[in-house]
Design brief:
Elements: H1 8-21, E1 31-36, H2 37-54, E2 61-66, H3 73-81, E3 85-88, H4 91-99, E4 107-109, H5 116-125, E5 128-131, H6 134-144, E6 154-159, E7 181-182, H7 188-198, E8 202-206, H8 216-237, E9 244-246, H9 264-274, E10 284-287, H10 291-294, E11 298-310, E12 313-318, H11 326-330, E13 339-342, E14 357-362, E15 371-378, E16 386-390, E17 410-415, E18 424-429, H12 434-440, H13 448-451
Parallel strand pairs: 1-17, 2-3, 2-10, 3-4, 4-5, 5-6, 6-7, 6-8, 8-9, 9-10, 12-14
Antiparallel strand pairs: 1-11, 11-12, 11-16, 13-16, 14-15, 17-18
Bound molecules: pyridoxal-5'-phosphate.
Length: about 450
């Protein structure tokens, strides 16, 4: 981080003020998403450096950004500029990666429910595919045909069943996870070995152990299990048939402070210590980090429309709720967010004479649970102030939830590293208009139901 003169928190404050000055939010645009370009670049460079430090020289490494963490074409392009590829899990995500100019050799397709058409397209384009289950392997058999090796690298996802983390919904390596071939189930391991023996074109093994909430040791244990399986398969077939291990993503993010912990470097070094053979040059590597590359570079800014009190409880009604912070609203204990208070000009709000006040920060959605924070100690908010939801760069404002037909907010990247103190903005996505909402909600079929009789 030493190459960036201004610390992330200072850049964030500059950006909040500048966003108001530039009119990116105001009475007509009461909520906006901001992305710190320097932060994203630093995270991507840090990831590459972390693995460069541990792999044998010349090892092919593809860092494929998990597109679902920020499904925004300019973000994918920025990451591609920084040397990253894309991990995609749907035709939409694949199209976004291609629109960003990411070439097929730098794209990996995972998803538990790929259709035949999706598989055929991926193979035709030369995109790496990780099959999820035996039935998908059967489909690949039919598509690959006999004799001709496929143009795309093909692999199999396994579930090492090492257990879950603190967030069940994001733990992919539990005994009963829906992902991959469950390796410890009776007969499964022998089946996997046979599947590779019978398919010389199957050259990769994939394991994504979990996401937020999984301890690093658990993730490393899962990668170790995948590595040991690859070794067993290669021994059985008598050659290095598995030439690449895809170790997934899942590095957790610290949502409690500006500290970046754990870092990619810590994880890479833990992997080196836990699975030394992984990095000795016999295996190419694919990683699929999402959240850890971008979460800390995102900020939602929302206007406080009203403040009120109910049953003695102060409530700030803002324009950021479940439509943006979906996980936080529906699972507040698993996904707490830091909230900051700014005045109407985007300057950090000072505490009043009485000190901070315990407040609820509510969103605009019409259900009682639409709160991004409850009983949070903040300077007393007033109508017209702004609130900031920190660390929201991944999985928040890019994955909109269309409740109440609330529009997707505009998203802008910012650069606050200039020596002149100026903050420059670039549009990532324009705010959605009401006309667009009406059009995508069936406007052209308005009479469709009435005419059915
Ligand atoms: C979601 C996902 C990732 C990214 O997970 P993060 O926690 O965002 O790093 C990587 N690989 C697969 C297969 C995934 O489903």
């Amino acid at each position: 981080m030493t190459s960036i003169p201004v610390a992330p928190a200072a850049r964030r404050e500059q950006a909040a003020r500048a966003a108001v000055e530039h009119g990116l939010l105001g009475p007509d645009q009461p909520v906006v998403g901001l992305l710190d370009v320097a932060g994203i670049r630093a995270a991507a460079a840090g990831l590459r450096a972390a693995f460069d430090e541990v792999v044998a020289p010349g090892t092919p490494v593809l860092h494929a950004f998990a597109v679902k963490a920020a499904a925004l074409v300019p973000v994918l392009r920025l990451l591609a500029d920084e040397g990253l590829g894309c991990e995609v899990a749907s035709p939409g995500e694949l199209a976004l990666a291609r629109a960003a100019g990411v070439t097929p050799d730098r794209i990996v397709l995972d998803s538990p429910a790929k259709t035949v058409a999706e598989l055929r397209e991926a193979l035709a384009l030369g995109i790496a595919v990780n099959a999820d289950n035996p039935q998908e392997l059967d489909r690949l058999d039919a598509l690959v045909g006999h004799g001709t090796p496929p143009a795309a690298p093909l692999g199999l996802r396994v579930n090492p069943q090492v257990g879950g983390g603190s967030i069940g919904a994001l733990s992919t390596a539990t005994a009963t996870s829906k992902f991959g071939v469950a390796l410890l189930d009776p007969g499964a391991r022998a089946w996997v070995v046979r599947a590779f023996t019978e398919r010389p074109w199957l050259t990769r093994l994939h394991a994504h152990v979990g996401s937020q909430g999984c301890p690093l040791e658990l993730m490393a244990a899962g990668i170790r299990a995948a590595y040991e399986l690859a070794e067993e398969i290669n021994r059985t077939v008598g050659r290095q048939q598995i030439d690449t291990l895809d170790i997934g993503g899942g590095l957790p993010v610290n949502f409690a402070s500006d500290e970046i912990t754990p870092g990619h470097r810590e994880y890479a070094q833990l992997l080196r210590d836990t699975v030394p053979g992984l990095f000795d040059g016999r295996y190419g590597l694919v990683t699929e980090f999402g959240r850890s590359l971008i979460a800390k570079s995102g900020l939602v800014l929302a206007r406080v429309e009203y403040t009120k009190s109910a049953g003695g409880r102060p409530i700030a009604v803002t324009h950021a709720g479940a439509q943006l912070a979906t996980r936080t609203v529906f699972a507040p204990d698993a996904w707490p967010l830091r909230v900051t208070a700014y005045d109407a000009q985007g300057r950090p709000k000072a505490e009043g004479d009485g000190g901070p006040v315990l407040q609820d920060v509510a969103g605009p959605c019409c259900f009682a649970g639409d709160l991004v924070a409850s009983g949070r100690s903040l300077p007393e908010l007033a109508a017209g102030d702004l609130v900031g939801l920190l660390d929201t760069g991944a999985y928040y404002f890019s994955n909109h939830f269309a409740y109440n037909s609330l529009p997707r907010p505009g998203i802008y990247g910012f650069d606050a590293t200039g020596a002149d103190g100026e903050v420059r903005f670039a549009t990532v996505r324009e705010p959605q208009t009401v006309d667009e909402i009406v059009a995508e909600s069936g406007a052209k079929h308005a009479l469709g139901l009435s005419r059915l009789r």
